[in-house]
Amino acid sequence: MRSNGRSSNELRPMNLTVNVNKYAEGSVFIEMGDTKVLCTATVDEKVPPFLKGQGKGWVTAEYSMLPRATQSRNQRESARGKLSGRTMEIQRLIGRALRSVVDLRALGERTITLDCDVIQADGGTRTTSITGSFVALAIAVNKIAQQHKLPVFPITDYLASVSVGVVNDEPMLDLNYEEDSSAKVDMNLVMTGGGAFVELQGTGEESPFTREELNQLLELGEKGILQLIEKQKELLGPIALKIASGQPGRGA
Amino acid sequence: MRSNGRSSNELRPMNLTVNVNKYAEGSVFIEMGDTKVLCTATVDEKVPPFLKGQGKGWVTAEYSMLPRATQSRNQRESARGKLSGRTMEIQRLIGRALRSVVDLRALGERTITLDCDVIQADGGTRTTSITGSFVALAIAVNKIAQQHKLPVFPITDYLASVSVGVVNDEPMLDLNYEEDSSAKVDMNLVMTGGGAFVELQGTGEESPFTREELNQLLELGEKGILQLIEKQKELLGPIALKIASGQPGRGA
Amino acid sequence: MRSNGRSSNELRPMNLTVNVNKYAEGSVFIEMGDTKVLCTATVDEKVPPFLKGQGKGWVTAEYSMLPRATQSRNQRESARGKLSGRTMEIQRLIGRALRSVVDLRALGERTITLDCDVIQADGGTRTTSITGSFVALAIAVNKIAQQHKLPVFPITDYLASVSVGVVNDEPMLDLNYEEDSSAKVDMNLVMTGGGAFVELQGTGEESPFTREELNQLLELGEKGILQLIEKQKELLGPIALKIASGQPGRGA
Amino acid sequence: MRSNGRSSNELRPMNLTVNVNKYAEGSVFIEMGDTKVLCTATVDEKVPPFLKGQGKGWVTAEYSMLPRATQSRNQRESARGKLSGRTMEIQRLIGRALRSVVDLRALGERTITLDCDVIQADGGTRTTSITGSFVALAIAVNKIAQQHKLPVFPITDYLASVSVGVVNDEPMLDLNYEEDSSAKVDMNLVMTGGGAFVELQGTGEESPFTREELNQLLELGEKGILQLIEKQKELLGPIALKIASGQPGRGA
Amino acid sequence: MRSNGRSSNELRPMNLTVNVNKYAEGSVFIEMGDTKVLCTATVDEKVPPFLKGQGKGWVTAEYSMLPRATQSRNQRESARGKLSGRTMEIQRLIGRALRSVVDLRALGERTITLDCDVIQADGGTRTTSITGSFVALAIAVNKIAQQHKLPVFPITDYLASVSVGVVNDEPMLDLNYEEDSSAKVDMNLVMTGGGAFVELQGTGEESPFTREELNQLLELGEKGILQLIEKQKELLGPIALKIASGQPGRGA
Amino acid sequence: MRSNGRSSNELRPMNLTVNVNKYAEGSVFIEMGDTKVLCTATVDEKVPPFLKGQGKGWVTAEYSMLPRATQSRNQRESARGKLSGRTMEIQRLIGRALRSVVDLRALGERTITLDCDVIQADGGTRTTSITGSFVALAIAVNKIAQQHKLPVFPITDYLASVSVGVVNDEPMLDLNYEEDSSAKVDMNLVMTGGGAFVELQGTGEESPFTREELNQLLELGEKGILQLIEKQKELLGPIALKIASGQPGRGA
């Protein structure tokens, strides 16, 4: 039995609050159970040097945990003077995942930076960051669309992410910290609204996994992600229509 | 006329929410107008090397701003690989201020670290951090007191902080960002419940100030701080009695 | 048609040369086509702080590219003063993968560090590093086994790795740099001799992929890895028997 | 009784030697008792990026202590790879203080950097640095004035600094290291020739201080600073006239 | 008696393999006994900022040791976040030495970077790096000459380097690691094909040396270097003629 | 003709002032013409980790230039966050040179750190640092000898250093900055009172040099160094006797 009486294929309660920051072009506070992440989207009207003059935009992400987001305090990376490998791996993942559903050419020569700051961590901070920052991104892109009359809405599909894993020999959806710590297999999935994979990262450091276990995990994850995307759609309302149609119309 | 119709000797609305973090020994979310800071207190049962074996504890602070706490995004200090002078100056100030009302010997050989993370900045982030982290500190110290039956309650007085400044030739209390940017004189005060000064930092980079202006600013600041301390007392309830009496009794 | 007339399910020629370094406890020079990696294993009779006194050993890896391993010279990370996110991600992957086939308790309180230095890069440097460093690890572990009469041979299974991807809409095995650059989907697989997955990292930044494509790629990869493991077995000879039997006998 | 028989309102002997460096546009070796600081002013005919094209100049400062300026050797910040918080706080203070008496627009698009290198430290190194570097600044600005026929002399007033504190319950002027170490209250004052405050930094970490104590300290400090400014005037001679009149005439 | 029966004035066996890297404009794998260094030359069609617009080129070098090039593993400088003093000293030496035989004006506005990566170290890694990278440089320069029809061949003379030292009171040529460790005097010589000195670095940390000892060491070194240059000439073949004549003709 | 009418074999005027720092165990302010270096010796009653428990001491050096020691201001290495290669090379040289005349076993398990801070630079800062810091070292060692009744005086010989070079085709002694900048050959010599070489570093980056030129330079340098050592002897007085006799007697 999981904590809070969750069944093995059940997500934790998800809560999304939008526009929580008065300065950012898009912002979302996302809670998946006790994991809480603040996602802000910043639009910058220029691109990094490697993209200059190509008529394309860029989407990138940064990830960080507050020192007491975790059970015992973790030292600030600013104080240590460098980012950990874990942080770099996660922020590269978030950026890559978001770019997969953005038409960078349609975005034009501008950069959107997603900042994912983990206020409290209870497992799944990277997947929660992706799910939340997709919404912050959509809000920010909509703001650009309204100002710039883009010919096409640059977000091509929905995007959400969840973790799955084998805990006590049972495949489970959306692991919290305690479950994650004892999982034999741990996998993060990122999928589009169309049901295709964008990222799939499975690791069996403690115990290799079979093709059959992989299939069970993929099925659990797919169902979970579709539920997350349903919630995103509800929340985004009129913006959701733009994602579906590609028309950067008036609304929202 | 100030924004929101504030008069020159009026504080912004202050809101304190306690126990916002499930892991930290003390936590407070403080809002002073649009300035929002999350303060967590972490208790560590050891002291830094320079205090080892002296029978004394330590209180220290770290301060950081989320990248989009400000109007335009500021680069993470973890990405830049070092803390700015401003950050170091502020976190040294917060730690020094808090230590002035802690009996480090009564605290025993333990360290309390206050993390002040600015979620949104609209002027006065350092003073707001001090006011908020005093409350987080009190909650954490009370937890220690309850577990360790300390002979004395180690917090000796209340502590709060506010900014004052001369804006458009008028002395003003609790400047927001816009006022702060155009202030000729800018001063941060930290005071105890007993009405004494702990820190006083005034700067007239744009225009030196006279003894008379100083006195006006000090009066404004004193009144503001007493109001802040009243709110702290209400919020802390039974812990407030311990600070007053020095008795680390049952309550809270 | 692939370069060198390779078919889509064909590995590049692999060459393994052992004991190429006169100091290291294990060393292998591995060539997969034009990708060339020097892997050395260093045995250290102590463990990192977080493992002290637990009766367990540790296996870790470091990865680096020589500046001119690539078409255009890349700046040294030592000169830049920090490791890139890519390097950290790769060396974390190599270490994690190798640990999955080592019984750390049977290894005893010692650390084995695998250094993977890419002499020339033509795609697949991380997978080649895993395949090569497994062999260097096995040689080093065998040396320990011979000196220390361990009750069990600490390597529990074979381990190899390969990349697969979708290039020009066709699933392909073991991508070289040119293919990798134009791949819509890119996946790295790490598997054991027993045919189970240890790591599976797929990314469809350019284009999300379906469950069916995933299955095709997994099949290609599985077959490739089994061929690599066959070559490892041949090369390791008597050590291979120990891996199979768990008996840290005389031989080799 | 203070060492050397000083009374509580007496400055240490101050000695200023000008033009001690053959390359710098302005240079001063200042001794306040056993505290010795070398101040050099460097003129650079450009401004930092944030001021480009605004027709204004910039004045900034750097501060450092030689390793054996202190009783026990302190590690070089260059060897540690970063500036301490204390150093950054001090050099920000020096720069801010000097800018308060410079008309940056009259200075034109050039930067003056004051380097304050503490050769020997016996308390009050930051205040001594300010007093000394004002003189180095004046000499350098005079050199510019002579070369560029500026319409106005860009230094608008004198500037000096001193520390005051409460030692053994007595307010004292110009603390040496030993006094500073045992002071309950410690305050640094920066004032102009016109008697106005530029910076005022008081801290009562060991014991909060009352309004009355503050007033006593301010009076002590004011008198001390006026004496320092008298000495600066004597030393600067003809340049002093320019500061008084604003006329960047021939002389000096 | 030296290891391998070498006499005191005998070089270790030297082996040079050219074009070992498929990307670099020049590459050499050099072995002096068990010391093995990979040298690559990279041509970049621009110069560093300090040379811009002067019509001159630049030659520079970087040096690094693989972690297990040595008996016990040395930590990567990229992981430590900075270059050691030893590394910087060596790479400055290599660059300086190579520039002494290049006519930078004839080279034109381009930079050649020599990367010397020590694959295995057994004494003399810096001298071996110089001898090897001269050959890589010559190959790369010849490539430029062929493409750009330079009026003059920019390499003006041969260059090689060797170590000498006093071991067990006997002057010896080309020390291996064991000899170097017990040498009282240690000297590195860099000379041109014309028999002149380019660099001469002798150190008698363990025991100062006399003028007579110096002369003996210089004689040993000169003879050794001439032998190395003979081998370079053989290897370079047609390029050697260009160095001799200054004519950047067809050949090679 | 050289500036100041110096002949080619003439030293610049040297001035040594001892005990210029009230805290350091030994201190010297050395002036060679316009080159001015402050040398302090710090005694620490422990050794670095690599020497622990071997009954031997250590002598090491650090070197730095004040930002405005030079014609144009050079950026602080503390601000840049790392030491330059030049600085590291120089401080390694100074330490190595000094150790050559110290009996580390006789010194006992203590470390002496020489800090050489260049107050003003006009060529020859490294050689001047060596000459000056030898005297600071001798004073500090004498202090130890007086306190600890060492059986032997641990300094075994005198030590001084000078530069020589070929300027306008003429060999010259003790180059100032202007001469050094136009020298074809540049050489630094470190020698003992007994006339033996400790370090010899010659470089002909601009133009290789012959054996004959080398001999001329060595002769010039030897004579210069003997003069410097004469001055050291005069200055050290009674300590000089101890260096000569090895008897750590009462005197000084």
From TrEMBL, chains A, B, C, D, E, F:
Keyword terms: Nucleotidyltransferase, RNA-binding, rRNA processing, Transferase, tRNA processing, tRNA-binding
Pfam families, per database record: RNase_PH, RNase_PH_C
SUPFAM superfamilies: Ribonuclease PH domain 2-like (SSF55666), Ribosomal protein S5 domain 2-like (SSF54211)
Function as written in the Swiss-Prot or TrEMBL entry: Phosphorolytic 3'-5' exoribonuclease that plays an important role in tRNA 3'-end maturation. Removes nucleotide residues following the 3'-CCA terminus of tRNAs; can also add nucleotides to the ends of RNA molecules by using nucleoside diphosphates as substrates, but this may not be physiologically important. Probably plays a role in initiation of 16S rRNA degradation (leading to ribosome degradation) during starvation.
GO terms under biological process: rRNA 3'-end processing; rRNA catabolic process; tRNA processing
Positions contributing to phosphate binding: R86, G124, T125, R126
Listed HAMAP family: RNase_PH
GO terms assigned for molecular function: 3'-5'-RNA exonuclease activity; tRNA binding; tRNA nucleotidyltransferase activity
Residue ranges annotated for the Exoribonuclease phosphorolytic domain, each copy included: 10-140, 157-224
Enzyme class: transferase
Stated family: Belongs to the RNase PH family.
Protein name: Ribonuclease PH
